[in-house]
Amino acid sequence: MLKLNVNSADRQVGSAVDTPLLWVLRDELNLTGTKFGCGVAACGACTVHVEGAAVRSCVTPVGSIAGKKVQTIEGLGTTGKNGGLSALQLAWVAHQVPQCGYCQSGVLMAASALLAKNPAPTDADIDKEVTNICRCGTYQRIRAAIHTAAKASADRVAASVTTGGAK
Ligand code: FES
Ligand code: FES
Question: How many A from CA of 141 to the centre of ligand 2?
Answer without folding.
Answer: 11
